[in-house]
Amino acid sequence: MKLCVFDFDSTLMDGETIDFFASKLGVEEEVSRITELAMQGELDFFESLTTRVALLKGLDAKIVDEVCKNLPYMNGAKEAIIGLKAKGYKVVVFSGGFRNATGFAKNILGYDADFSNVLHVKDAKLTGLVGGDMMFDFSKGDMMQRLQKLLGVSKADTIAVGDGANDRSMFTYADLKVAFCAKDILKREANAIIDVKDMKQLLELI
After folding, report:
1. Has residue 39 got a pLDDT over 90?
2. For a tag site, which of 16, 18, 68, 188 has the least CB within 10 Å?
3. Domain covering 2-205 in this structure, CATH number
4. Which of these is catalytic: 9, 157, 163, 167?
5. Ordered alpha helix ranges (H), 55-127
6. What is the per-residue pLDDT across 64-85, written as a single tens digit (0 to 9) for each?
7. What are the residue boundaries of the structural domains of the chain, listed by start?
8. Who contacts 26 (Cβ-Cβ below 8 Å, separation ≥6)?
9. What percent of the chain has pLDDT over 90?
10. 167-181 pLDDT tens trace
């Protein structure tokens, strides 16, 4: 068995889910600024995530789901996943974003599993709290190791694809490390770079 792990936001999806939420509350500029600093590696991921989610307090949960059902997927994402599966890969998403988005997209893009975070909801509104699988800078690497052991997949048979600083930890455990339209901090640790928004180019690297 072989394994390919994708980041979600700005990798399989064209944009940042949390920025779409923020626009509904008029806090998009502030949230986008923090997102950018986190993806550049200039802010601790846990602190940036909890700070951004706190700014979403009061957003209607129905709006969250509506946004997640209308996200713009990256050009070539579905075709790349189909191609990977045809080559015998299990395809998994690790996202510092949210289950509302990755769970819905799973049925559209066709990946096998998703590990992400959960927005806390009370009285049908976001409370500004968050928890889940991908809360820290090290989370993706930690989950990669556990998944490899569970599936019996080696580093040599693993691909990691991402765009930001919090994808570095999973690069450690993959032989093919793909920086997709990525920040410089991630490009420095990649051994393959795709600089155009066409995920089908991934298939040419395999």
Report:
1. no
2. 188
3. 3.40.50.1000
4. 9
5. 61-68, 77-86, 99-109
6. 999 999 999 999 999 999 999 9
7. 2-205
8. none
9. 95
10. 999 999 999 999 999
